[in-house]
Design brief:
Layout lengths: L5 H6 L7 E4 L5 E4 L1 H12 L6 E10 L4 E10 L5 H6 L3 E8 L13 H15 L5 H4 L6 H20 L2 H19 L3 H10 L1 H10 L1 H16 L7
Antiparallel strand pairs: 1-2, 3-4, 4-5
Length: 228
């Protein structure tokens, strides 16, 4: 059986670091558009290959806005020709042509803003940042929960990385050598030798560097300093 919610469930949660509160009118949560491009790339592949968008129509409104109809396509759901003829999801994006109420200063980014607005709406139909569109970011407790989840996810991803595994291996080797030291002098000599390794491990994970440092201090405490 096809899981129709598989994609939605994988992209619905938003990193609070990629949002900001906009205090305009009733207020709303704005999503960093480049984070959406990044997440779509994770899901479908590079833009222009695994997914992309087309400008279908451009219109100007009587309120001096530019409106752009954006079509979103995802490879595998239409033939390559169909991507350009009839993208699966189409949404209008809109932006003012001016940056001031007097309409005396043109907004040179108006077309970019309208296109981005349309693309954001298209991606929302696939579930991207659904928690924002469903109003969950109006709940401070939910935002705090998401911040905690992001930290945990980042830690888990880091711990599964080759860099982290390498840092653990280096730390284990150094700790093993520390424990084998039989004199304070041997510990001091080893400490000088592993300064570069300690720095490399610290750059990857401070926790592993702390393991090394603690092992070093513990070993030194076994040998009382000579009286001068």
């Amino acid at each position: 059986m096809t899981d129709n919610m598989k994609l939605w469930n994988s992209v619905e949660k938003t990193d609070p670091a990629h949002t900001k509160k906009v205090k305009f009118g009733r207020g709303f949560t704005a999503i960093d558009p480049h984070s959406q491009v990044m997440n779509a790339t994770k899901a479908f592949g590079p833009a222009g290959e695994g997914w992309g968008w087309n400008v279908m129509r451009v219109e100007y409104t009587v309120t001096n806005d530019v409106a752009i109809l954006v079509g979103l396509w995802v490879d595998g759901h239409h033939s390559r020709d169909d991507h350009y003829e009839c993208p699966g999801i189409q949404q209008w994006g809109q932006a003012s042509l001016y940056i001031d109420a007097a309409e005396s200063k043109k907004d040179t980014d108006a077309f970019k803003k309208a296109m981005t607005d349309g693309l954001t709406k298209c991606l929302s139909y696939l579930g991207f940042n659904a928690d924002v569109f469903l109003g969950k970011f109006d709940d401070n407790k939910y935002v705090q929960q998401r911040q905690e989840e992001v930290v945990k996810d980042a830690a888990a991803e880091r711990e599964n990385s080759p860099e982290y595994e390498g840092a653990v291996s280096k730390a284990d080797t150094v700790i093993k050598n520390i424990e084998a030291c039989e004199t304070r002098e041997e510990v001091n000599v080893l400490r000088d030798k592993v300064k570069k390794t300690f720095s490399e491990v610290k750059d990857v994970d401070k926790g592993q560097a702390m393991r090394m440092s603690s092992a070093m201090q513990k070993k030194l405490s076994e040998f009382p300093e000579a009286n001068v």
